[in-house]
Write a structure and sequence with these properties.
The protein is of the alpha/beta class. The protein is 41% helix and 26% strand. It has eleven helices and ten strands. A six-stranded mixed β-sheet has the order 6-7-8-3-9-10, sandwiched between helices. Helix 7 (171-186) links the parallel strand 7 (159-163) and strand 8. The N and C termini lie far apart (48 Å).
């Protein structure tokens, strides 16, 4: 399987605080890879570093064999990586369609291409087409998340970085979002998924990494992580279940 993203010994600092402590990971073409961990483990920091939003202290980030260290964020988008940040970050005073147009900034002069990509997004998220002239700040949380993902797809990425796409959503919407992530992946887009819903993330991922206080402590196939006792206890509710069984 061809490697798309390769990270080696990555160190990221916030001032004197080491947020990532020399981690290494890989995402291959066609994969969904999930990164799990508690709040403050460094998951969002990892995605921001890949996107060129944070300076790299040490280590290497490569995408399709090209080094991304010190490459500007907009150039990383051009190279094929699109980042959907935590909290959606839609432009609330712009319409749905205007948000999508911004996502296609690298091809903004090609009206036909932009229109085709919007059609693709609307096929994935029919509700966005109905809301296309509506200010994005008036959308529901689920609709804003759909818009954020749609905007990320407008640059026609080879890899999508998704940061907590299910955060704050009702269970029915969570199910819908994960179904759409699988659909996006089936279209040939690799996905690096940071997600607090470990059970859902591991159900759609090929592989996964556990990140704890800036270190990768466990890595492997998603199926192996689901059956790993430490992962079950820390992220899949195994410890709660065990305590209930013991107390009976």
């Amino acid at each position: 399987m061809k490697s798309l993203l390769k990270i080696k010994d990555l160190q990221i600092f916030y001032g004197s605080i080491e947020a990532l402590r020399g981690i290494s990971l890989e995402v291959n073409a066609g994969e969904i890879v999930t990164v799990l961990g508690a709040n403050g483990a460094g998951k969002s920091t990892l995605l921001r570093a890949i996107s060129g939003l944070l300076p790299i202290k040490k280590g290497k980030i490569q995408f399709v064999g090209e080094e991304l260290n010190n490459v500007p964020a907009f150039t990383i988008v051009i190279k094929g990586i699109s980042h959907v940040p935590e909290g959606r970050k839609v432009f609330t005073t712009l319409t749905v369609e205007e948000n999508l147009n911004l996502g296609a900034f690298i091809d903004r002069k090609n009206v036909k291409v932009v229109a085709e990509r919007k059609e693709r997004v609307y096929n994935l998220f029919p509700i966005l087409e109905k809301r296309k002239n509506q200010l994005s700040g008036t959308l529901s949380g689920g609709e804003q998340q759909m818009l954020a993902i749609g905007r990320g797809l407008m640059s026609n990425p080879r890899m999508l970085l998704l940061d907590e796409p299910s955060l704050g959503l009702a269970p029915l919407l969570v199910k819908q979002i994960f179904k759409i992530i699988r659909e996006i992946n089936s279209q040939g887009i690799a996905v690096l998924l940071v997600e607090q819903n470990a059970r859902k993330a591991l159900s759609i991922a090929n592989r996964g990494y556990i990140l704890e206080t800036g270190n990768i402590t466990i890595a492997g196939l998603a199926s192996d992580l689901r059956s790993n006792q430490k992962v079950q206890e820390a992220y899949l509710g195994g410890a709660v279940l065990k305590r209930r069984l013991v107390s009976k």
